[in-house]
């Protein structure tokens, strides 16, 4: 039995992407629908939907479309591990390591931002509390 195919509208609703975004990602080669209907409409499998969801997770993390394309090519290449030469496998693993390092670096920067925001929030809360205490002590 074949895999269920979904139309672009179903996919859009399911993962919260606009039709325009899905079409654009198809046009730039990030995700290609697995099939087309007799009328030429894009049809997606569960695997296609998972790929779209993965791309959606990357976009707010400041990955460019070119970087996403390269990461997807790396992941796709590694999925065919049995067919790879040892040289190609090492190349892909090196690319994966570069993405991992970039991701870890971004994560460290975000952790630093969160720490700074938490510190600022505490300072503002303390200022608010001390100001309220001072005003309360000045009121007869």
UniProtKB/TrEMBL annotation:
Name the InterPro entries for this protein: DNA-bd_dom_put_sf, MerR-type_HTH_dom, MerR_fam
In its UniProt entry, what is this protein called? Answer: MerR family transcriptional regulator
Name all HTH merR-type domain ranges.
Answer: 5-74
The UniProt keyword set, sorted, is: DNA-binding
